[in-house]
Design a protein that fits this description.
alpha/beta, 4-stranded parallel β-sheet, two-stranded antiparallel sheet, elongated
Length: about 140
Amino acid sequence: MLVNNRNKPHTFVFQELGITLWKLRYPVVLDNINPIKLWPCLRLLLISSDIPILLDDPFVKDVIRAMRINPREVYALTVDQIKILIIPSEFSCYCWWIGTKVVSNNLNSICLTTPSLPILKCDIHAKRDLWRQISDIRLNA
């Protein structure tokens, strides 16, 4: 839970006094919000602006299938929930940012970006861009 904070330059004075500074690794645990712990086996995060994306949506299912990812390895969340994530060390996955800008890339991820699902489903150019992003990932894998 705690990480030794020895590497900061201002800690030298505290070290001389025999005081060890500690920093919480997961400060969200102390908030009254239940943190979300990501499983190391996750391969795709669906991140939307306000409402989590439903994994039952046929278009979403097609994208997951095209990426050759098992639906059990997919998790949907909102941008606000990123603040309460507990990210395992050595975590890496794909992040599909749907209808929002990439807010944080501390997830060690490859990002796909698209407009919101209603727009994406009707816009041939946005669909083409998404499929191009997916094919680029598959070619580089």
